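Two proteins follow. First one:
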Amino acid sequence: MLRCGLRPDHYTFPFVLLAAANLQSLYHGLAAHASIFKLALHDVDHVQHSLLTMYARCGQVGLARKLFDEIVVRDSVSWNLMLSGYAKMGCAGEAVELFRRMRSEGLVEPDEVTLVSVLAACGDLGDVSLGMWLEELVGEYGLVLNSFLGSSMIDMYGKCGDLDSARRVFDRLAKKDLVAWNAMITGFQTRWQVGLPPQPDLKKYKSRSDYFHAASMLASQKYDIHKLLFEAGVMLRARMSGLTKLQNVEIEAVAVEELANRDLQLVGSQDESAATLALKMRVQRLPS
């Protein structure tokens, strides 16, 4: 573009900065920032947002904060990007401090994206009292406890070791998607309440973390299998075939158990043959 003599504008640089962020190339990000300053585009809001994103993804939260402090009029996007950058880079204390500053200034009202970032920081700090305060703010700001916000809150309580509060939030969710289920299951892992033997066979799993991952996958896939049980036989065959290719014996065993214990009430020879074939395929490979 530059070789063709074309002048980049405020629409050009967000794409360049996003590419630098995805590559985590600070060199290209700094070069783009220099060009932005030369072209006097540094006061354009969406260029500022892209710069914050680039610096945060490149791990330069200090430079991101310097840029943030230089922004004269900060909108909700600017605040959320800085908070998210802190939370993702493990700067939990700085994220909470910035959130308190946001509230004290009172110029921008926090939204669900704001609270999700602060909840993540709270979980890293293990501060359950701060988490309860954030939960109260959800009602104070009139926000809806959807899966996006609820899952973050469940994850926070789980990290803080308060599984009763995590379960309370989980039960309050009107719609529980897989993200919410997995957040709750992951919280239970800390107390070995995942439905697998309390003494893991570490010869099979390379480490305890691998065991936890397998436990979470087993529980989430079991829920997924429940949903798929009454779908068409072709879909059932595809799911069982997929499990075979993955060679996941634990999840396959759950599938067979669920199929064997439930009356599928399948109608039509095609569905019946699909279910029968799936059962035969798996029973032969079940561990004794």
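Second one, unrelated to the first:
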Amino acid sequence: MADLENKIKIEGPQSPLTYAALTTHGDQPTESTTFMDMLEEVECKKCKDLKEKLKAAEAANKFPEPSEDVLNFMESVLSIYRPRSVMAAQQGRKRLLSGYDVYIPNVMWNNIESSSGQSGRRLLRNLIRAVFTESELAESAGLGLRKQTVGSKSPLDPKKVQCLKLFVNNYCEKNKWVIPSVTEVNKVFADAVGRARSIQKHT
């Protein structure tokens, strides 16, 4: 940037900024070439280089896995350009974690938060009931920790399970609640499945 600034000269109070030379880019600007004109040209070259790199990556089918910051940026962009119908459907809902499509109505979240009593296990139990239906719980194999046989039930959605585990862990750590152990987390899920099966059996 310092080299670029050194190549700029001001000819007078009413004259536009011009380049004396642009040997870095191999261009020879005319006297009427303005600073903004040259910036646009430089940016266009950068865009072309980037497009060529993307095409090469696409041809080789080798795209690097985006970082969390990139995913968050993409989400913020999508929130601006997402169709209004989709945005309207998500209004009034809380997204538990970025990168997971797990939402809870704000009213329900407020009840969950206030009724958890600073207990990580109770928070997880309430979230399980909010995220999974009784049918999903009753007809599942829970976390799938036990040995499964052919034709047996499938475990709960692993992405939702992972989201709940991470959210509870982060929430407890942030609010200085006791973080439930792995054994306690597994038992909470097992109890939720057992409860749902019992309700389904008696209905």
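SUMMARY FIELD: The domain at 71-201 is CATH 1.10.10.2590 (Arc Repressor Mutant, subunit A). Residues 4-27 have pLDDT under 50 and may be disordered.
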